[in-house]
Structures are given as C-alpha cells and as structure tokens.
Amino acid sequence: MNFGKKQNLLNHNHLILFLNNNHYQLTINIIKMALIQATDNNYKDLLANNQNVLIKFYADWCGSCKLMAPKVRRLSEDESHSNVAFLDINAEQNPEVRKWAGVSNLPFFATIKNGNIIATNATSKIEGVEAMINELKLA
C-alpha cells in the first residue's frame, strides 16, 4: 500500500484507509518541524518536495539574524502557515544556495513556489517576512 510522498501527508489532516473493502477516515494531527536546517547538499531536494518554501539566510555573527530567529520560528509554528516549509540556511557555509538566491545582505529571506523564486528581501522586520509568506500563498 502506497501512501504517497511525505509532502502529501503534510498538506492534509485526513488519512483514508481501505481495508477489506471497508472505508475508514482518520483525522490526524501532524507535528510539523518548525525550521529545517538546509545546506548546499540538500536544498534542491527540499525545494522539490515542498511546494511553498520560505528560506531564512543567516550568519552566526549577524546580530539582526539572532534577533529575527525566534520570530521566524514562531511563524513556522503558526498553524496558518502549515503549507509552508521553513528552511534555515547558514549563508557563509552554503555558497551554492546563497548565490542561487542572490543573497545581498543578512538576514535575507526568499520565498519559493514549485522550485522558483517568487520574492527576496533583506530585512530585519518580521512584518516584511509575514507579507512575503502571504504573497507566496496567493502566488
């Protein structure tokens, strides 16, 4: 029995089982991982497996990045954003994805839909990140 890709399960809160010609529908609660640590080695797979993605680029020395981290984590845990994967990428250690996204300053955010960059923004304001997420959902 094939239940499909993990992403399919993450976008739904119902699982339908067919056993011995009987139909069972279960409502399940999925605990979504808040922030996914991504690297040059795995970001392409993560983008391929998630329709809507917000990437946060940071550096360990960046004070504004440290201030934004808990705010972005809270956004990632917000149920209204359950259809968005939140990736956390150290910009200094991952030059390939940094170059691909056109990172110009830190903290830097990019929204991705179906593997394509929708918007980018170097901002220290959570309102700007929220606006990017809302635009991503409408794209």
Care to give the gist of this entry?
The protein has 139 residues and is of the alpha/beta class. Helices cover 33% and strands 29% of the residues. It has one domain (36-138): Glutaredoxin, CATH 3.40.30.
Topology summary:
Blueprint: H1 6-10, E1 14-19, E2 22-27, E3 36-37, H2 43-48, E4 52-58, H3 63-77, E5 85-90, H4 95-101, E6 108-113, E7 116-122, H5 126-138
Name a few traits of the molecule:
single chain, Glutaredoxin, five-stranded mixed sheet, alpha/beta, 139 residues
Discrete helix count = 5
Order of helices and strands: HEEEHEHEHEEH
Distance between the termini: 34 Å
Q: For the record, what is the CATH homologous superfamily label?
A: Glutaredoxin
Radius of gyration: 17 Å
Number of strands: 7
- Report the β-strand fraction as a percent range: 25-35%
Strand order of the largest sheet: 3-5-4-6-7
By CATH, the topology is Glutaredoxin
Counting structural domains, the number is: 1
Give the CATH level 1 class: Alpha Beta
Unreliable residue runs: 1-14
CATH architecture: 3-Layer(aba) Sandwich
Polypeptide structure, described:
By secondary structure, this protein is of the alpha/beta class. The chain has one domain: Glutaredoxin. The chain contains five helices and seven strands; from the N terminus they run αβββαβαβαββα. The protein has helices at residues 6-10, 43-48, 63-77, 95-101, 126-138; strands at residues 14-19, 22-27, 36-37, 52-58, 85-90, 108-113, 116-122. The model is unreliable at 1-14 (pLDDT under 50).
